[in-house]
Amino acid sequence: MAAAINHDIRLRQRPTGMPVPGDFALTESPVPTPGPGQVLVRNLYMSVDPYMRGRMTDGPSYVAPFQIGEVLQGGAVGRVMASREGPFAEGDYVLSMYGWRDWFVSGGEGLMKIDVAARPADLDEDAWLRAHLGALGMPGLTAYVGLTKFGDLKADDRVLVSAAAGAVGSVACQIARNTGCNIVVGIAGTEEKCAWLRDALSLSGAIDYREARDLAAAIGDAMPGGIDLYFDNVGGHMLEAALENMRDGGRIAECGMISRYNSTEGAAAPRNLIKIVSKRLTVKGFIVSDHFDLMERFTRDMTGWIADGKMVWRETIYHGLAHAPEALIALFEGLNFGKMLVRLVED
């Protein structure tokens, strides 16, 4: 056996406000043994996503909260290391929601085989696997669903995207651009990220919200014709600024409001929700897990864009399961550039 010990991360206590390392516990146990009809999987990478913070709160939501003392869950890519006549062969790569642990056994429920042979020639195998937690995975599908189904994206739309250098936002920007939108502006938190949006993603504009003294005015300068479609990942003051610049009849796809996830006080903004009425806006919130019926179409389109060099992405990778809580905290501090991942195996 390559490793005698399995490690996992459990919720020690529910966070109050921003999570801290003490909210989590790293535990050890023997590497599990697969039974008949099961496979043993060694996770290679795990995903760190904003929605995980919501599951750490004990309250009604669209998905059950994490329980104190139980192993956390999240997207992961792993390799089948042993199969006892299980649904996958030894050596297969699989996508699962069994992250936050090194090893697990499964009868195949919730596992999806990754087609390594489908990768473009200029993308190495490891990058292809990681992409299934980012651009080709749930973040990419989130951007696709929000824009095409709820944003009613059209080729001549003027599109604004918040958290545009993140895993979801960067894909949303490129989907808009690939659809034919000439005016696509991204909001990010550093000049380095803004430069990447302009240069690598070929956006028409990028706004550093930390440097903008008046965000609504900065958006107006970058989009003097107004916004047809706003893809919102942030909420709060950013949503307020976008509302000021929406065109009559515009649409807002509400993907998330990360500015509120760790808040312990009432929201100070947006204070101008009346604009929804006066501008006759359509605002739609959505949860990507309700729309897996679009996965086949999304995969076809995304694979084509990747093969044609029309989709690029960045990743921030922490190393070692013990650093997963640190990666989650860094995500909420805006320290990630692109998709936040944790690599669970050493070279």
Describe this structure in words.
- This protein has 347 residues and is an alpha/beta fold.
- The protein has two domains: 5-134 and 314-343, Quinone Oxidoreductase, Chain A, domain 1 (Alpha-Beta Complex); 140-289, NAD(P)-binding Rossmann-like Domain (Rossmann fold), CATH 3.40.50.
- The protein has helices at 51-54, 125-131, 138-150, 167-179, 191-199, 215-222, 236-245, 275-278, 295-307, 324-332, and strands at 5-11, 24-30, 39-47, 76-83, 93-96, 103-106, 112-113, 158-161, 183-188, 205-208, 227-232, 246-254, 282-285, 315-319, 339-343.
- The strands form three sheets. Strands 3, 4, 5, 6, 7, 14 and 15 form a seven-stranded mixed sheet that branches.
- Helix 3 (138-150) packs across helix 4 (167-179).
- The longest helix has 13 residues, at 138-150.
- The model has no long low-confidence stretch (mean pLDDT 95).
State the low-pLDDT regions, or none.
Answer: none
How many separate domains? Answer: 2
The number of helical segments is 10
Q: Profile the largest sheet.
A: 7 strands, mixed
Helix percentage: 25-40%
Spell the H/E element sequence.
EEEHEEEEHHEHEHEHEHEHEHEHE
Task: Quickly name the level 1 CATH class of the largest domain.
Answer: Alpha Beta
What is the annotated CATH architecture of the largest domain? Alpha-Beta Complex
According to DSSP, the number of beta strands is 15
Q: Tell me the distance between the termini.
A: 17 Å
Look at the structure and give the mean pLDDT.
95
Radius of gyration, whole Å: 21 Å
Outline type: globular
**% residues in beta strands:** 15-25%
Give the CATH H-level superfamily of the largest domain.
Answer: Medium-chain alcohol dehydrogenases, catalytic domain
Structural class designation: alpha/beta
Q: CATH topology of the largest domain, what is it called?
A: Quinone Oxidoreductase, Chain A, domain 1
